[in-house]
Amino acid sequence: MTSLPFEWLEKDRRRLRVEGSAVSDRIYEFLTAACAIVIPALVIAIAVAIFAAAWPAFSKAGLSIITTSDWDVAAGHFGAAPALFGTLVSSFVALVIATPLALGVAIFLSEFSPAWLRQPVGFLVDLLAAIPSVVYGLWGIFVLNPLLREYVMPFLRDTLHLGVTPFFRGPAYGPSMLSAGLILAIMALPYISAVSREVLMAVPRSQREAALALGATRWEMIRDAVIPFAKSGIIGGIMLGLGRALGETMAVTMVIGNRLEISASLFAPGYTMASLIANEFSEATNDLHLSALMAVGAILFVITLIVNGVARWLVWSVSKVRVK
Amino acid sequence: MRALRLAALMLLAVACAKENANNSSTASSTASSTGSVDLTGAGATFPYPIYSKWFSDYAQQTGVKINYQSIGSGGGIRQLSEETVDFGASDSPMSDDEMSKAKGGAVIHVPTVLGADVVTYNLSGVSAPLKLTPDVIAGIFNGSVKKWNDPKITALNSGVSLPNQDILVVHRSDGSGTTYIFTDYLTTAAPAWKSIGKGKEVKWPVGLGAKGNEGVAGQVKQTPGAVAYVELAYAKQNNLPTAAVRNKAGKFVLPSVAAVTAAAAGAAQALPANTDYRISIVDAPGADSYPISSFTWILAYQHQKDAVKGKKLVDFLNWALTEGEKSAPTLDYAPLPQEMAAKVKANKIASIDFSGAK
Predict the structure, then answer these.
(1) Domain that holds residue A86
(2) Which has the least CB within 10 A, A116, A199, B168, B251?
(3) Is the ipTM of this complex over 0.85?
(4) How many of the other CB atoms lie within 10 Å of CB of A9?
(5) Residue of A nearest to B79 (CA)
(6) CATH of residue A153
(7) For the whole model, what pTM was predicted?
(8) Minimal CA separation from B12 to chain A, in Å
(9) A38 lies in a domain?
(10) Tens-digit pLDDT profile for residues B255-267
């Protein structure tokens, strides 16, 4: 390593005092490599441990864990389909609500906001990510659920006549899939908006200037020049938000109503996989019960992997199109 | 410049944190004089408030420090079985199967205090406590009684005007000793509940699940027409309305510390001399017994491997059943009947030896 390949490093050599320090370079290289290896090793170790613990349940019940809906610990039936359904639906509802909001915030902050407003608003939105989930849960119990029960649900069902669709039917208790989706939307929002904002701000000035020079309005510039450029990053941000929503435990447990039933209505209480584990793990003494909960964890793990894989693929395919 | 400012900020943060740490460490060091922990235990969350009071009182009186993690009864049984703790604690007795898997050999169950479940509800305009029978409670919680003005409820509560309102059942979503006591009671006292059975979590036919006593109580408070079961101590401390439940003797009894101890006394009379105290006292005989009651237990190996620790554990258990019981009512736990505490000490705690044999 007599000459470093990067010009900027070469230039900074004296300031960084790296000359003649091949040994420290080696150490540095070794340390970073160690960090890079430890993390994947940890993930693999976790996966192995979860699947090993889940094996008794898988070998006894097989795929009926995700295809049946009868979860009866006393009888030894472990069908977690409603929890799988609840995880997917609550996260989907969260994304449907959070994505437009977060993109709106990000576009406003990066394109329209006066400079003095950008910092405080961005800071406050980011702060949403720092609130502990149990606080969201308490807020859900004491503020959001009563609001939903008294005003929002009757309004959707009766005033807007959405009750004719199967999605907004039934009695309004408060704790519901809708409530869980809303809480998750608020929790996922800062992730999506922070990533999108940074990506939008990173779009080169020349890109915008070129669009404006061609006679585009500001909106056309954003739509045709800025967003396509930032698309892969935005998708990455959405997937980060989705990951947050899929794995969230505490806040969801507190507002979703914890009922193992598949219902089309968003007013009905539901359950998620993470909540199921959180609720039952500490008091699970029976080996099969414990193993079934681990199996639910393993399935959640696989779903998260799939989501991440899809995100990678989306980002990859989008960026490939752009380069072409 | 920016980096400098950042560094200064970090230094400041570290300094503040350190100061906080210093404050808290001086605070905790006054509470406990020496550093090491003598005994470790893990298990039930329900008796945690009284246990932590016992441990702190005991440390002040004797200097013996006990560290307890309230990780849940299931975790307590598992950790005891793996011999990673000196004692366990559970709200439901260990099954024969669990007993046989314990690595340290024979396990004894030491009942410490009693807990009870109350039936609480949200009915505006109903001020007198509702009266309920086991069959009606089972009917409400299995969904066959759907309205508050159902004839089955009104027949028990003449003079109370009950609304034509849907009943919303709220139950615990987390596995819990509270649920175990409640379903154990219904299985014992109400034939209609047999098909659902008992457990720390059961398959509820109707209703919403909420996490913890506080989650259940919060949901009931907010929802007109809601009904739920919560822990007695929690209900008392939060002044929740509670129903009087008809006991085996046919009397409607309101939940109270005295009525729960009475249930234990009633049940104790029927116990054989060589009982292992793995017993359920729901639906206990006795005119004053509150029927939805249960023991909570400390679990320990009969043959202790470490004589020093074993001796400390025995001393503590004897202290708990003598001195400790006195402070139980201040935290709304029902103490053991005195006669029974004496028997537990003589028959169970005295049987602990230090041979370590399997």
Answers:
(1) 64-323
(2) A116
(3) no
(4) 12
(5) A285
(6) 1.10.3720.10
(7) 0.81
(8) 21
(9) no
(10) 999 999 999 999 9
